[in-house]
Amino acid sequence: MKIRTFIAVLLVVLLAAGSAYAGKVTMNLGYAGAEGCTYSFLADKFEELAEKYSNNTIDVKVRCCTQLCTEDEAFKAMQLGTVDMYIITSNNISPHFPLMDAFVLPYIFQNKEHTYKVLEGPIGKEFAEELRKATSVYLLTYGFVGHRDFYTSVRPINTMADMKGIKVRVPKNQVMIETFRAFGAAPIPLAWADTPTALQTGTVQGADNGTSFIKSQKFYELADNLAILEHFSYFSPLFASPRVIGKLSDEQKKAVFRAADEAGQYHRDVMQKQIADIRNFLGNEGKMAVTYPDKTEFIKAAIKVQDAYVADKGADFKALVDKIRAAAK
Questions:
Q1: How far apart are alpha carbons 302 and 148 in whole angstroms?
Q2: Best label site of 24, 109, 167, 255, fewest CB within 10 Å?
Q3: Which domains, ranges and CATH numbers included, belong to the chain?
Q4: Distance between CA 118 and CA 110 in Å, rounded?
Q5: Do strands 58-63 and 25-30 pair parallel, antiparallel, or not at all (unpaired)?
Q6: Is 8 left (phi over 0), alpha (psi -120 to 50) or beta?
Q7: pLDDT of residue 22
Q8: How confident is the model over 97-140, as pLDDT tens digits?
Q9: Which residues are 29's β-sheet partners?
Q10: How far apart are CA 175 and CA 130, in angstroms?
Q11: 3-state secondary structure the chain
Q12: How much is the pLDDT for 37?
């Protein structure tokens, strides 16, 4: 009797283990950048944690350099289930889920605290759920949120008045054009490839980029002044297809969601330190005059641009923008 009891208990334990982990699942995670780029910090940490928290019943294979598909193709591929997971820059989501455009408005995030309060709080969770309902794709983590800094050869920027008349290179994007116009500058739409020459010849006298690009493109050799304006934000969420999530047991899903959340926090911390280090480089070795302007007037001007853009976007878009604004108070 005791032996039978032991066998019965053992079967219960084995069955419980089987229901907790539904066999080995392989998840291919892609991104477009080169190995070692910012995406790799998020992808590699997710791989490590997902395998750990699933007791190695999940095998994550990271594929850099568009091995799975291009970033433009990735979202649709996840909807079809032909790609498992991908890290996609936020502006490339807008064609599939237009509400994403709310996050690229000027100063929609007024500071770092506001940014992460929105994305990591109820607003960000609700947004991810609305995206899933509309597209079936899971947004697992927003990761690091970066911002564009402004550089110019004219003068240091301490107030919005210092922007007056500066010829600023901007992409052919109406929101960005109107933003710099509202700041008092003279925006000149110009292709990215033409920017270095335009800075050298004086066709433009300034531009904005993510901090790491200012260093990698050596724009510190063409402009003496760097203003930490952080007027436009960008981020690259980690997404998963409904097909691959559907393969997971409940316990494996918990492992994936936990791993994504912690990998996002790790990505945020690592990249924030890198940005600080790059700004120090630009101010020291790059010999740029680095300023941290009071953003009050810039934000007031940006809100007018937001209002004009929101007016054409419908009730859902306005509701999201209103929630984001309210979170700054």
A1: 14
A2: 24
A3: 24-145+234-277 (3.40.190.170), 147-232+288-326 (3.40.190.170)
A4: 11
A5: parallel
A6: alpha
A7: 58
A8: 999 999 989 999 988 899 999 999 999 999 999 999 999 999 99
A9: 62, 85
A10: 25
A11: CHHHHHHHHHHHHHHHHHHHCCCCEEEEEECCCCCCCHHHHHHHHHHHHHHHHCCCCEEEEEECCCCCCCHHHHHHHHHHCCCCEEECCHHHCCCCCHHHHHHHCCCCCCCHHHHHHHHCCHHHHHHHHHHHHHHCCEEEECCCEEEEEEEECCCCCCCHHHHCCCEEEECCCHHHHHHHHHCCCEEEECCHHHHHHHHHHCCCCEEEEEHHHHHHCCHHHCCCEEECCCCCEEECCEEECHHHHHCCCHHHHHHHHHHHHHHHHHHHHHHHHHHHHHHHHHHCCCCCEEECCCCHHHHHHHHHHHHHHHCCCCHHHHHHHHHHHHCCC
A12: 84
| Chain position carrying tokens 């984001």 | 324
Q: What is the pLDDT of residues 184-219, one digit of tens each?
A: 999 999 987 898 999 999 999 999 998 988 988 899
**The token pair that represents 288 in the structure block:** 């740029």
The CA distance from 4 to 133, in Å, is: 49
Whether the CB-CB separation of 215 and 144 falls below 8 Å is answered with no
Q: Letter for the amino acid at 69? A: C
Residues near 107 by beta carbon (within 8 Å), at least 6 away in sequence: 231, 295, 298, 299, 302, 303, 306
For residue 153, the model assigns a pLDDT of 97
281 contacts 274 by C-beta, under 8 angstroms? no
